[in-house]
Amino acid sequence: MRTYADSWLKVEEGLGGVRPVLKGSADELRAQFGGLLAALAPGYPQPSGSVKTEDGTLDAIKYRIYIPTGLGDGGGLPVGVYYHPGGFVLGQSEADEVLCRHIAENTKSIIFSVQYRLSPEHKAPAHLQDTMKAFEWANENATKFGGDPNKMYTIGVSAGAGLALAVARKVTLGQSTASRDAVKGIVSFGPYTLHQDNIPQAYKSTYTSHEENGENVPVIDATTMRQFFELAGLSPEDRDYFPALDQGHHKHFPPTYIVTCEFDPLRDDGLVMAQSLKAAGVPVKADHYDGLPHCFWLFPSLPETEVFMKNAVDGVKWVINQM
Questions:
Q1: Cα dihedral 284, 197, 264, 22 sign
Q2: 4: left (phi over 0), alpha (psi -120 to 50) or beta
Q3: Which residues are registered as beta bridge partners of 68?
Q4: Cα-atom radius of gyration of the chain, to the nearest Å?
Q5: Of 43, 49, 79, 278, which alpha carbon lies 20 to 30 A from 70's?
């Protein structure tokens, strides 16, 4: 029998016995997420002086660059182009700020964080267009902010984790102004890779998380994901957005780090993607968290959040070391 980690149940107790599950219209989802983050914000660490930030705009796409300081003039640093979570509907948050700073500081890597357009105001392929444009610009201009254009990787959480895979796929297909080998690695925390209405036969026997985590699991359940996909205007057959559909191209992916969680409707999205990449001969590092929900690291009081943050650094370092 599947059971939640005791530490997670204590988090729910601290929230008044309420299990946080995002549901409803775009406005309702945004209000719920904003309220949850407001409750969690006091537990987030304050920024240290070891990372500086630079803000800018690229054709109305806002971005923030996180640059580790005090490294001297040792040449260009690796650059991770970061895509935030939120089901294509919710914007960036303080939690993204914490994660980006943590990775930049502890991996000595520059993080280029992108605020892509959101749905339902902007339907697909707006998100993918923005994330592609941001990667291409960062690759072309990496040296201007201390980065090495030959050490670029995509990185993201949830919807952003799927976009990190999707951008890498398009670049390796040659559908980009960047060279086919410009993406040297992928870091994918809790990605979507398939639509629940279009699971290939090869995956059906192992892809059960949308049923097992269909209702009333924390943060998001399968109903929430269906709502996100509908608001974004995604087609279940769209290979550009659902990279696990394009098995024939997986052999061209760069080394990939994937994180999955047991009580997550997207658990098997990550697992089948990792399995397919491995079968295609791609180096893969994977971390799985039993007893915990989607994006549990949003909750700073959870002991496993510290474990995740350490493992995230190790995963990014592993990707960088593969370059």
A1: positive
A2: beta
A3: 51
A4: 18
A5: 43
What are the C-alpha distances in Å from 78 to residues 65, 75, 103, 166, 179? 13, 10, 12, 20, 17
From the candidates 221, 240, 264, 269, give the one annotated as an active-site residue.
264
pTM of the full structure: 0.98
Which residue has 């924390």 as its token pair?
218
Concerning whether 158 is annotated as a catalytic residue, the answer is yes
Q: Are residues 130 and 116 in contact, defined by beta-carbon separation less than 8 angstroms?
A: yes
E-assigned strands of the chain?
51-58, 61-68, 77-83, 110-115, 147-157, 183-189, 256-263, 284-293
> pLDDT in tens for each of the 323 residues of the chain?
789 999 999 999 999 999 999 999 999 999 999 999 999 999 999 998 899 999 999 998 999 999 999 776 667 999 999 999 999 999 989 899 999 999 999 999 999 999 999 999 999 999 999 999 999 999 999 999 999 999 999 999 999 999 999 999 999 999 999 999 999 999 999 999 999 999 999 999 999 999 999 999 999 999 999 999 999 999 999 999 999 999 999 999 999 999 999 999 999 999 999 999 999 999 999 999 999 999 999 999 999 999 999 999 999 999 999 99
Token pair 């960047």: residue: 178
Task: Let me know if 294 is a catalytic residue.
Answer: yes
Which residue among 102, 127, 250, 294 is the active-site one?
294
Of the candidates 93, 109, 158, 188, the residue annotated as catalytic is 158
